[in-house]
Amino acid sequence: MKTFEPLNRGYQHVFQPNQLSIGVVVPIENYAMDPVPSMQNHLQRVQLVEELGYKAIWIRDVPLHVPTFGDAGQTYDPFTYLGYLAAATKTIGLGVASIALPLHHPMHVAKSAATIDQLSGGRLLLGVASGDRPQEYPAMGIGFQSRGERFRDAFDYIRAAADSYPVHNSTFFGELTGQHDILPKPTASRIPMLITGNSRQSMDWIAAKGDGWMFYPQHAQQQAYTIARWRRMVQDSQEFDQPFMQPLYVDLHKNDDFRPQPIHLGFRAGANYLLEYFQQLKDVGVNHVAINLRFNGAAIEETLERLAEKILPYFHTTQKEQTTI
């Protein structure tokens, strides 16, 4: 069995072969009735998540609030916000799920990502996607139908930017001639980039290019098939294995034995079923689950503490990691 490549500190903190870790999606609040969250107590909740032992927080890139889409994300600019959170935390992974690459110049993404990575001591995890909100593209003068090509072009540009005085020819974003450099550089050989969904690419391309794959929740058997097929392609094209992660919307019921009821991309359930479900995900090869509490009915702090008590000990080491910045 191949191991995961030892990239930056966040990557090694969050992802381990044959193990499952758990993170939390920001905003950490119930905003089921309004697409725009309040962002009240957001810093305190992020710090509580770290203190309780969750492995990562995940924020989103939502350039425009599109009311018909139904979710404005955390509303803050992702890199500015991550810089703020990096200064207020010490060990937790700082994840973006995900930057819509076609909507940004990759030089800016590369520079911002490397800056956060340096300032956080190597904790950045960069999810990347082709974007799924058609309204954002004409607002930026970009053709929606070109997003697959632009995604590939931006991905390769960011990879090249990690080199010293990079040389790269880009169809959409200009030319790097090798006479100028892009600073700062990442703490590792490159920023870990996890591809989201298909991003309008082939499975072969995803397996050969990425440092991991974010995919959507599915029935455990279907997820097992998806992961196994992808990992075979990774093993054929890369020296190292790669982590697989998924989101999950959770409404934690006060009764630990409450059986699951479906909600959007997840379920309402008691802690005992949730523990059973996470074990199934671990068994089929999921390495990380990002919990979203948007539809959670109970108090957020209470829910985070109950999950930390009843779920995390079965998947996370109890020994505090010793890290230096």
Describe the protein's architecture and organization.
Helix 2 packs parallel to helix 10, helix 3 runs parallel beside helix 4 (106-119) and helix 4 (106-119) packs across helix 6 (147-161). This protein has a single domain, classed as Luciferase-like domain (TIM Barrel, Alpha-Beta Barrel). It is α/β, with parallel strands linked by helices and 325 residues long. The two termini are 31 Å apart. Residues 318-325 have low confidence and may be disordered. The strands form 2 sheets. An 8-stranded parallel β-barrel has the order 1-2-3-4-7-8-9-12. A two-stranded antiparallel ribbon has the order 5-6. It contains 10 helices and 12 strands. It has helices at residues 9-14, 42-52, 78-88, 106-119, 136-139, 147-161, 203-209, 220-237, 271-284, 300-310; strands at 21-25, 56-59, 93-100, 124-129, 167-170, 174-177, 193-196, 213-214, 244-252, 261-263, 266-269, 288-292. It is globular.
